[in-house]
Amino acid sequence: MNVGQILTFDDVQVNVGNGYTAHDGIFTAQVSGVYVFSATIVSDFLTWIRAALVVDGIEKATIVSDKTDYLQASSTIVAHVQAGQHVYIRVSGSNHCKLNSNPTHGTSSFSGWLLFEM
């Protein structure tokens, strides 16, 4: 994984309003409001990754999965997002690892929901 690369999550469970696009990993807010976003990353065995939760190009949180045995790391934020703004997770450092997506060792995920409209 390269620094700046947007992480994609292809197992989309719920996507009301189709705000999340699995092929590019970007959530586009359909309405302005206060949202909650949460991300969990699990690096592969003996690798590490540092990622950022990004709202409209601004890093709002850092998530670091360290170089151990499938370490899982999470972050949750509350953010005011305008309709049309983008939210995503991007790599901010790594040793060219891959995200783990094996339920035995942990699954990487990205979720968000509208708390209230503004």
Give a structural overview.
By secondary structure, this protein is mainly beta. The protein has a single domain (16-117), classed as Jelly Rolls (Sandwich). It is 0% helix and 53% strand. It is built from no helices and ten strands. The protein has strands spanning 20-21, 26-28, 33-42, 49-55, 58-65, 72-81, 86-94, 101-102, 106-107, 109-117. The strands form three sheets. A five-stranded antiparallel β-sheet has the order 1-2-7-4-5, with no helix packed on it. A three-stranded antiparallel β-sheet has the order 6-3-10, with no helix packed on it. It has a two-stranded antiparallel sheet with strand order 8-9. Strand 1 and strand 2 form a beta hairpin. The model has no long low-confidence stretch (mean pLDDT 88).
N-to-C series of helices and strands:
EEEEEEEEEE
Please work out how many helical segments DSSP would assign.
0
Q: Determine the strand fraction and express it as a percent band.
A: over 45%
Report Rg.
14 Å
Strand arrangement, largest sheet?
1-2-7-4-5
Helix content: under 10%
What is the total tally of β strands? 10
Shape, please?
elongated
Q: Total domains, how many?
A: 1
